[in-house]
Write a structure and sequence with these properties.
Strand order of the largest sheet: 1-2-10-7-8-9
CATH class of the largest domain: Alpha Beta
CATH architecture of the largest domain: 3-Layer(aba) Sandwich
CATH topology of the largest domain: Rossmann fold
Shape: globular
Number of domains: 2
Number of strands: 10
Distance between the termini: 49 Å
Order of helices and strands: EEHEHEHEHEHEHEHEHHEH
Radius of gyration: 19 Å
Structural class: alpha/beta
Bound molecules: pyridoxal-5'-phosphate
């Protein structure tokens, strides 16, 4: 039996599962990297614990100092756990788009939450990221800055990438993920491309986000969308667009239906971005007829954070066509 020293040691080393029930008639091997199995229910636990640890080591986070972060929800949940473990208070700033369950979860885990209006441009002082920065300055706090903090990328370069390489025994050909900050796809992708330069990185992007249009050089059509945590209207410092080989846009309807299929066929309970990533991975597989590939789809967070949204019949009926 292996005994861990703290919950921090339970972050990462997530399972890789063969999706042979949902991916029946394909010549490709489709695998799910199950990031929803991290302690806080998402991939963001990795960067939250790692960024706190590194900031303490580098002396940028002082003992007992307040932590502030702008979040799509999951980083806030991971940071709430890391902050509690290390004896810090946490304020998270997010837009109204973040699901109520994520906000509630952060509060239960001890964070103070501030929900601000969305729809602001990145250079607007009221953009939630700028509000987070301002609050941190005013309160002499450490501002985490997952969008620019290179320890976000490093966490995936040091851990997620090597785990995928080892779990697939080096057979991985394609990595599919969404982009919020770019940490997962660019950090893990950098490690994987160093091992095997032919590996392709595929961006799964919600319709309405501008990232895939920028990557393809096509005209963006920004619009609100329901999928949480990925896509956007600005390029974070941690997103190196040049590394991306291919991008696929997925509608809300398709993302949500795919999350339901993942549950029905594989008994895997992921959130809306898991549906988006899996739908993109399956579309990619369909397009690649010439050879048999091993495709890894990163499933970022748990369906438990979407019980009042994409897994609620009334919510679905009010938002999606049937
Ligand atoms: C639900 C969800 N999926 C995916 C991601 C994307 O991860 P990354 O920030 O590493 O690009 C995020 C991050 O914001 C997220 O909250």
């Amino acid at each position: 039996m292996q005994i861990l020293d703290s919950i921090a040691d339970a972050v990462g080393n997530t399972p890789m599962i063969r999706l042979s029930r949902i991916n029946r008639e394909s010549q490709h091997t489709l695998l799910a990297k199950c990031e929803f199995m991290n302690p806080g229910g998402s991939v963001k636990d990795r960067i939250a614990f790692y960024m706190v640890e590194q900031a303490k080591k580098e002396g940028r986070l002082k003992p007992g100092q307040l932590i502030v972060e702008a979040t799509g929800g999951n980083t806030g949940i991971g940071l709430a756990l890391a902050a509690k473990l290390k004896g810090h208070k946490l304020i998270t700033v997010m837009t109204e788009k973040v699901g109520k369950e994520k906000v509630h979860m952060m509060q239960v885990l001890g964070a103070e939450t501030l929900v601000v209006p969305g729809g602001k441009l990145i250079d607007d002082p009221d953009h939630f990221i700028n509000q987070g920065r301002r609050i941190a300055k005013e309160q002499n706090a450490w501002y985490v800055d997952q969008f620019e903090n290179h320890h976000n990328l490093d966490a995936h370069y040091k851990f997620t990438g090597p785990e995928i390489w080892k779990q697939t025994d080096g057979t991985v050909d394609v990595l599919v993920a969404g982009i919020g900050t770019g940490g997962t796809l660019c950090g893990a992708g950098k490690y994987l491309k160093e091992q095997k330069p032919s590996i392709k990185l595929v961006l799964a992007d919600p319709v309405g986000s501008m990232l895939s249009d920028w990557q393809k050089g096509t005209e963006p059509h920004p619009a609100p969308y329901l999928v949480e945590g990925i896509g956007g209207d600005f390029i974070a410092g941690n997103f190196n667009m040049e590394m991306i080989d291919h991008s696929i846009q997925v509608s809300d309807q398709c993302s949500i239906e795919t999350a339901h299929q993942l549950l029905d066929k594989e008994a895997i309970f992921g959130g809306s971005s898991s549906g988006c990533v899996l739908a993109a991975a399956m579309q990619f597989c369909e397009q690649m007829k010439d050879s048999a590939l091993t495709v890894v789809a990163v499933l970022p967070d748990t369906g438990r954070l979407y019980m009042d949204t994409i897994f609620d019949q009334a919510w679905l009926a009010s938002r999606l066509k049937t």
